[in-house]
Write a structure and sequence with these properties.
The protein has twelve helices and 22 strands. With about 450 residues, it is an alpha/beta fold. β2, α1 and β3 form a beta-alpha-beta unit. α3 crosses α5 and α7 runs antiparallel to α9. It is globular, with a radius of gyration of 26 Å. Iron/sulfur cluster (SF4) binds next to loops.
């Protein structure tokens, strides 16, 4: 390997937990489909089993509560107190503050030493609040005021989330200023609603509250003005009525992108429901489900799962190895869509030709999974639709083949003033289990053209 190999420990991108899955509100914009949600409360002893995950995730990565309403768990304060001090700065929760909260509760929230607390704030108008949240004269404003004071006293950071809707958009410039004065949020995110999957009823309501692109362009300006140059205010105007209607006419589910459409390192996520069941997701398709009740040693389980997930990710890049019987032939089961495996054989021709290339980064995760990225000009130069770019790793006498992802590299194209290098980037993950030391491996870029496979040793420029 030419590049310096950096060693890292893989972490989960984030762990999203819910400790209570009912909700005491019915916000008209909410993406939750309540008809299909069974409310469950997670007891503290089950939550205890999620705690090893604190060490396996990074900054802002541990969602103590995410999709539902945590204050409905009668043990929520105890749950917060169970968290080890050392990991609390990675954690946060999101609440609607609708339930009447005692001074003790609010004090416990403000002293929990979490990274922050997210609060949903749609309007300062009580009647509109009731209509938008499906509540009646709730304790929201009173809770908000008391928590604001306690958070300041105890150094707890608050973040706000505000939906941008037809009903409240005219109030939002004023709301931004008032919230800033009264609550000093470290972040205030204003967003147009998005949906993962929506019932007919949700869709109908969404259509009445989403703004058209033209309206967002005009009224959005007032929001941007109110935000001024305050970087803590984030305004997301991306979801308009037109795109929602278009999406609605298709199937929401079809928007799940496949692994092959997501180049780059997979970010593994853990999702844990309030009934203790869970799964791993995002950027890697795995059917593995778990139930915390059945897991005896969660630290071991989640550590092992990270290795399994990485092995699964790497298997998406691996094609096969040189057939031992025909040493001069390179053969591999060509993994194809629809599960059909066509067996191909090629003579390997190692070429002395040198193309400009660069191995920008090589990171070895958990001593086993090698992520390489960079660019190379051979396939870009010979950019013919029928050609395929592979990587070969030579380990002692055998070749192993991998299919890298292509990555756009406009920076390379512009630095070398060569437009053909626009698609010269690559990303590949290699499971080195059973191979020699990473430093002893040779890396080749191989181009299959027709019946011929030519391998070029990947050189640094
Ligand atoms: C689903 S809620 C759960 C937490 C809590 N019940 C609350 O509302 O604060 C999490 C956050 O998502 C926001 N949210 C709800 N529906 C949304 C949607 N359709 N699009 C974007 N954000 C949404 C809420 O305003 C809230 O800030
Ligand atoms: S409070 Fe949160 S979870 Fe409950 S309905 Fe509103 S957005 Fe959804």
């Amino acid at each position: 390997m030419k590049a310096q190999v950096r060693e890292e420990k893989k972490q989960y991108e984030f762990v999203s937990i819910d400790t209570a899955s009912p909700c005491n509100a019915r916000c008209i914009f909410c993406f939750n489909d309540w008809a299909n949600i069974k409310g469950a409360i997670m007891p503290p002893e089950v939550f205890q089993k999620t705690l090893p995950l604190l060490d396996m995730t990074g900054y802002d990565g541990f969602y103590v509560s995410c999709l539902f309403e945590p204050t409905l768990n009668p043990d929520f304060c105890r749950i917060l107190q169970m968290m080890p001090e050392s990991g609390r700065n990675k954690a946060f929760f999101t609440t609607n503050l609708v339930k009447k909260l005692s001074d003790e509760d609010l004090l416990a929230f403000s002293k929990a030493n979490l990274d922050h607390i997210n609060i949903s704030l749609e309007t300062y108008d009580q009647a509109l609040y009731d209509r938008l949240t499906g509540t009646k004269g709730s304790h929201f404003y009173e809770n908000l005021e008391r928590l604001g004071v306690l958070a300041k006293e105890n150094g707890m950071k608050l973040r706000l989330i505000t939906m941008i809707l037809k009903s409240n958009i005219d109030e939002l410039p004023e709301l931004i200023k008032r919230a800033k004065n009264e609550l000093s949020p470290v972040r205030h995110e204003l967003r147009t609603p998005y949906y993962f999957k929506a019932s007919k009823e949700q869709m109908d309501i969404a259509e009445s509250e989403l703004l058209m692109r033209k309206e967002l362009d005009v009224k959005g300006k007032a929001l941007l003005n109110a935000a001024g140059d305050d970087d803590n205010i984030i305004i997301d105007l991306s979801n308009d009525l037109e795109s929602f209607v278009k999406k609605r006419s298709e199937d929401f589910d079809t928007h799940v992108t496949s692994f092959a459409e997501r180049p780059g390192s997979a970010n593994f996520r853990v999702r844990i429901e309030s009934d203790g069941t869970g799964h791993f997701g995002h950027r890697i398709e795995t059917k593995e489900l778990f139930d915390l009740h059945d897991i005896k040693d969660p630290k071991q389980y989640f550590n092992d799962a990270l290795i399994r997930l990485q092995a699964l990710e790497a298997s998406n890049y691996f094609l096969g190895e040189l057939s031992e019987k025909k040493k001069s032939l390179f053969s591999f089961a060509k993994k194809k869509e629809k599960g059909v495996a066509a067996f191909l054989t090629f003579p390997v021709e190692v070429s002395d030709l040198r193309f400009p290339s660069s191995l920008d980064e090589a990171v070895l995760y958990d001593g086993r999974f090698l992520h390489i990225s960079g660019w190379e000009a051979s396939s870009a130069k010979n950019n013919v639709a029928s050609e395929e770019r592979l990587f070969l790793i030579k380990d002692k006498e055998r070749f192993l083949a991998f299919r890298p992802f292509s990555v756009k590299r406009p920076d390379v194209a512009s630095a070398l003033s060569d437009e053909s290098l626009e698609n010269s980037g690559f990303y590949c993950v290699i499971d080195t289990k059973g191979l020699s030391r990473v430093e002893e491996l040779s890396l080749y870029c191989a181009i299959i053209s027709g019946e011929k496979l030519t391998a070029f040793e990947l050189a640094s420029v």
